[in-house]
Q: What sequence folds into this?
């Protein structure tokens, strides 16, 4: 396969001949102090002595939210869109509810920054949409900038990944028991609605029993059995697939409770379900897309902002903002909580395909992992045992 | 607790040393400001500008005198050292720009950079300082805020007229002056003794008076960056400036 980055130069030339469309802003934050230190070090340049993580922890929380780099995204149809990445500088270790008020203020400031940058549409990455619970109308200037949580495209990438992993592992989805952790959240419920008519059995887990029951009732139209629980451990030993959609600063379940041949999609933010290697369940990071036409960042921070094992991989929520800009659809495509319908998922997926926003290759903290999923095929396991 | 002339307040010896050092830095910084404005008097050609510069110099002198007087009344040792290494480097940078008639650079040094730090730090001190000391810092912080706001307004107009020109000037001055201020507020002394603290650096003892250097530095950088944002400078550019400062 051609590397997307290798195709970028020719795409960029084509894009230069076509007018750029509306501007976008990507509002986000970094998920670890180590990554934050890498970004700061990259900005310091080679002439400066290395900055310690301790210094970064002491200085960065005081930085006002601001543009970190200019972003150009290239569609495979030859067009491009320009925008900015605005970091809210949330402290990676203070994403809990206790810091919600301070974090919301930072996201509001980042939203104001997006408006100053002239963005027509802004995507809220990571916790910036989670702490708002999708209530984008609580942001300043929401009448001037269309804010989207980006969750619809995130859901699209998650469910496509489940479908692809299912095919790769040789397991028809119709026979699979799919557990969704954080099932009543915006992403979790979107996945549940999409997967309900396609799975063998749906296992839903969340903290709020009332919301769980309500979701279960809404899914009754599909013939698929749907079970609910507030205890994540209850369904883990049964699940063929686990979609961990609850965004938590640390995972609240143990991979030891998961079947060794299960496939776990870490669909939350930050990605913090670490692969335990073999034997054991295969973990992959879900909700991620890859821009086949390429991305250009100025300053070029792509390797530190997105240190993934393949180029131009970005979270689905941020890609939705770029997608809307390429389409000239300056609207709050994803907003609120529990509004993502299967029809919207199909629509946003079609747009993603049109512009070459492909599903990212399967990867986890150890690197690419498609091979491990493929090795779950019954025949492969048989051969392996014989070997 | 209200401090009186004869009995400062119930503070231990180390806390009193810290307050004395804070007043020393403040008084010295204000006198450097006075000298900076005085330097402009000869350079300005317009009489009104000369008068303005003299008035500003007098205000800074008044602030310095207030700090010295308070220290004396409260029995604190206040040192004024216009050759203290960090302040001398800042003064040298100012004089260099004044001599070549770059008033914009002078405005940036005195009214944007030094005032951003003064407003932020005086505000922090005002929140924890006892009695009259706290009131004095609060009042002086308010006056310095007016100076900062005035400078932001002027610089925003300049930026609107010539964005790349002003950005270049601020970038150049930032390297000369903000690097010195960053060294002053680093967790540890980067270039040795500041020659205002006395026997040892007071930074580790700031918690004795409910302050700490991490928050003082963070608050000052925050206000400086917000000021740059309000002038209109691009965020990704000023972020790189901050990232390259000494720590």
A:
């Amino acid at each position: 396969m051609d590397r997307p980055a290798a195709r970028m130069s020719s795409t960029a030339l084509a894009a230069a001949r076509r007018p750029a469309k509306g501007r976008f802003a990507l509002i986000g934050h970094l998920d670890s102090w180590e990554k934050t230190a890498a970004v700061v070090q990259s900005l310091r340049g080679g002439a400066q002595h290395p900055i310690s993580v301790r210094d970064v922890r002491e200085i960065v929380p005081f930085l006002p939210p601001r543009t970190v780099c200019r972003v150009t995204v290239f569609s495979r149809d030859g067009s491009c869109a320009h925008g900015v990445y605005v970091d809210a500088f949330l402290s990676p270790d203070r994403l809990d509810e206790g810091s919600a008020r301070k974090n919301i203020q930072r996201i509001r400031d980042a939203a104001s920054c997006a408006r100053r940058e002239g963005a027509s549409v802004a995507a809220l990455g990571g916790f910036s949409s989670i702490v708002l619970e999708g209530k984008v109308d609580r942001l300043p200037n929401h009448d001037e900038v269309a804010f989207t949580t980006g969750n619809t495209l995130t859901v699209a990438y998650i469910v496509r990944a489940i479908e692809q992993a299912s095919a790769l592992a040789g397991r028809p989805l119709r026979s699979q028991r799919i557990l969704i952790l954080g099932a009543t959240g915006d992403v979790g419920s979107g996945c549940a609605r999409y997967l309900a008519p396609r799975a063998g059995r749906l296992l839903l887990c969340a903290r709020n029993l009332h919301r769980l029951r309500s979701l279960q009732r809404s899914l009754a139209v599909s013939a698929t059995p749907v079970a609910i629980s507030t205890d994540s451990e209850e369904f883990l030993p049964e699940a063929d697939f686990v979609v961990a959609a609850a965004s938590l600063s640390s995972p609240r379940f143990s991979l030891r409770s998961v079947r060794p041949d299960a496939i776990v999609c870490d669909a939350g933010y930050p990605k913090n379900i670490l692969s335990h290697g073999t034997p054991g369940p295969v973990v992959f990071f879900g909700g991620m897309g890859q821009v086949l036409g390429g991305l250009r960042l100025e300053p070029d921070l792509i390797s530190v902002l997105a240190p993934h094992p393949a180029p131009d991989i970005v979270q689905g929520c941020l890609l939705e903002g770029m997608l809307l800009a390429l389409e000239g659809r300056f609207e709050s495509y994803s907003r609120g909580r529990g509004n993502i319908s299967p029809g919207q998922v199909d629509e946003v997926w079609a747009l993603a395909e049109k512009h070459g926003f492909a599903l990212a290759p399967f990867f986890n903290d150890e690197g690419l992992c498609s091979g491990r999923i493929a090795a779950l095929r019954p025949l492969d396991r048989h051969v392996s045992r014989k070997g | 607790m209200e401090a009186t002339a004869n009995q400062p307040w119930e503070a231990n010896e180390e806390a009193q040393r810290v307050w004395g050092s804070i007043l020393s830095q403040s008084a010295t910084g204000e006198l450097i400001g006075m000298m900076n404005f005085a330097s402009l008097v000869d350079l300005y050609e317009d009489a009104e500008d000369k008068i303005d510069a003299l008035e500003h110099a007098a205000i800074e002198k008044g602030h310095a005198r207030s700090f010295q007087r308070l220290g004396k009344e409260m029995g604190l040792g206040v040192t004024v050292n216009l050759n203290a290494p960090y302040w001398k480097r800042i003064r040298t940078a100012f004089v260099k720009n004044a001599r070549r008639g770059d008033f914009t650079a002078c405005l940036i040094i005195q009214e944007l950079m030094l005032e951003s730090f003064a407003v932020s730090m005086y505000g922090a001190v005002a929140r924890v300082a006892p009695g009259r000391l706290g009131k004095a810092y609060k009042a002086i912080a308010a006056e310095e805020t007016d100076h900062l706001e005035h400078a932001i307004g002027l610089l925003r107009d300049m930026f609107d007229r010539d964005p790349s020109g002003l950005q270049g000037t601020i970038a150049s001055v930032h390297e000369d002056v903000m690097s010195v201020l960053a060294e002053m507020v680093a967790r540890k002394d980067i270039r040795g003794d500041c020659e205002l603290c006395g026997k040892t650096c007071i930074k580790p003892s700031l918690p004795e008076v409910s302050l700490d250097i991490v928050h003082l530095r963070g608050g000052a950088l925050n206000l400086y960056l917000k000021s740059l944002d309000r002038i209109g400078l691009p965020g990704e550019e000023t972020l790189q400036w901050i990232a390259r400062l000494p720590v």
